[in-house]
Write a structure and sequence with these properties.
Helices cover 42% and strands 25% of the residues. With 123 residues, it is an alpha/beta fold. Strands 2-1-3-4-5 form a 5-stranded parallel beta sheet, sandwiched between helices. Helix 5 links the parallel strand 3 (64-70) and strand 4.
């Protein structure tokens, strides 16, 4: 709540759900429901798409909450997506839902102040 509340108070916030493979599917399945329930700008993209052409999917003129779904948390495209967001967006924030507490994404979260990481049970 302390991490998300100030972000969600900003009406300009764009929420980008992303992941690789079945994790991308989770974001695509959730995005319409979140849009309808919250009235927020919620989109979902595969991390392979974002990495291939980041400025087509990430808007530097808007604060962005990148919600990363990751089972292993080690997919190169998932790690590259969060790194690109931090490089290209003046206001980037991350909510990482990972199953592996020792993953590269979890380690990235520990090094940054703009990240909230939640370790989910595997299975």
């Amino acid at each position: 709540q302390p991490f998300l509340a100030p972000l969600l108070a900003n009406p300009r916030l764009q929420i980008v759900l992303c992941g690789a493979g079945s994790s991308a599917f989770a974001g695509r399945a959730l995005a319409p429901w979140l849009r309808e329930r919250t009235g927020r700008d919620v989109v979902a993209y595969g991390t392979t798409d974002i990495v291939a052409n980041p400025l087509q999917y990430l808007d530097p003129d808007r604060p962005t909450l990148l919600v990363s779904f990751a089972r292993s948390g080690n997919s190169p495209e998932s790690v590259a997506t969060v790194e690109l967001a931090d490089q290209l967006l003046p206001e980037s924030y991350h909510l990482m839902l990972v199953c592996n507490p020792d993953s590269r994404l979890a380690q990235y979260a520990h090094q940054r102040g703009n990240v909230c990481s939640l370790v989910m049970p595997q299975g």
